[in-house]
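Pipeline run #58 for the internal structure catalog. This entry was flagged by the ingest filter as a single-chain record with no existing model, so it goes straight to prediction. Upstream metadata was stripped on purpose; only the residue string is passed forward. Reviewer on rotation: M.T. Logging verbosity set to normal.
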Amino acid sequence: MVETLLAIGIIASIFVGFNIGGSSTGIAWGTPVGAGIIKKTTAAGLMTFFVFLGGWTVGRNVMDTLSGRIITVELTLSAGVAVLFFIGLGILAANIFGVPVPTSMTTVGAIAGLGLATGTLNYPVVAEIISWWIVTPIIGFWIGGVIGRYIYPEVNRRVQIKKSEGPLLTFDRNRTIPKPTLGSNTTRSELVSTTVVLIIGCYMAFSAGVSNVPNAAAPLVGGVSGLPDDTAIIIATLAIGVGGFTIARRTMESVGGELSDIPLLAALFVMITASTITTLLSWFGIPISLVMATVMTIVGIGWGRATRPVTIREAITQDTGGSEIVLGAITAEEMEGKPAAPIGEAEPEGVLDAGDLFNPRAIIKYISMWIIGPSISTILAYGFFVLIPGVA
C-alpha cells in the first residue's frame, strides 16, 4: 500500500514538475531565444542544470517551510500526495484562464487547507508568508518604476544589444586545443553583451529552481515512508527538465514573440529584479513566486518609463485609463543610442504614453487571480481533508 501511494506521489510530482518546466523555461529563456541569442535546446539544457542547482541549494529552505513549518506536524506522504493533486489542479486552472497563478502560492494554500482541517495550522508562519505576498508586488513595482523612470533610459542610451549574422564564436581547429575566436561579424561589445544575457538567463533559471523545485518535491518528503530530500529534488528537477525540452519550446516561442517589442535590455532589467527578489525571499524560507515578481516588475518599468514627462505626484494621481497591459508594451519603439527626454518633458514621437503602458485594471486582474488561486486550493484542500480525515 505504501509503495503504491509513493508511486502515485512520484507520478503526481512528475506531472507538476513537467508543467512547471513548460512555463518557467519560457519565462527564463523566452527573451534570449526570441532575440536569436540562444537555441531552444541549449536553453532547456541550461534551464535544467540551474534549476537543479537552485533547488539543491537555496530551495531546501523553502522545502523546509512547505513540509514542516506551515503545519505544526510533519506532512505525511498520503497528505503530500493529495497536496500535489491540488497543485496540479491549480496549474490546470491557470492554463484554462490564461493567467499565471503562482505555483508556490497554490502549494501553500493546499497545505494551509490541510492545517485548517486538522487543527494543525501554524498561524504565525502563514501570516508571515502572506505578508510577504502582499509586500512583494509592491517592492517589484516600485523597483521597476525607479528603473523605468531614471535608470533604463540612460543605460539604453549607452548600451545596444544586437545580434549580428553568423556564429558568435568560431574555433581554430588547427591547434591541439581548439582556440575560440570571434565570428566574422562579431564585435567585442556583442560578445560581452551576449555573455551578460546568458548569465542573467542562468540566474533566472536558478531562481526558478529555488522557488519551483520545492513545490514538486516537498510533498514527497513527509513521514517515514516518504522520499529523502535529495531524491525528491532530483525527481522534480528531471520532470522540470523534460518540460523544458518539450512543451516549453512552444512557450519560449510565445514569450519571445510577446517580448519582441521590448528592447532586450528592458527585459534583462526585469529578469534581474524578479530573480533577485525571489532568491532573497527563498533564502529566508518564504515560498514566493517568480511570476509575481516578474509581472509586477514589468508593470513598474512600464509605468516608470511612461511617466517620465510628468512629476511623481502627477504620475501617481493621474487617471491613466488605457488598454490591457501586455508584455510587449514596456517601451514600444525605443530609440536605442539616443538620449531620452529629460524628466518633466514630452517624449519624442514613437514612445507610448502612460495610458498605453499602465492599466490599473490589468493589475487588478492579476492580483485578483493571485488571491483567488491560493484561496481555491485552500478551500478545496480543507473540504477534502474534512471529508476524508484519514488521509491526513
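catalog note: The chain is about 70% helix and 0% strand.
catalog note: The radius of gyration is 22 Å.
status: ready for reviewer M.T.
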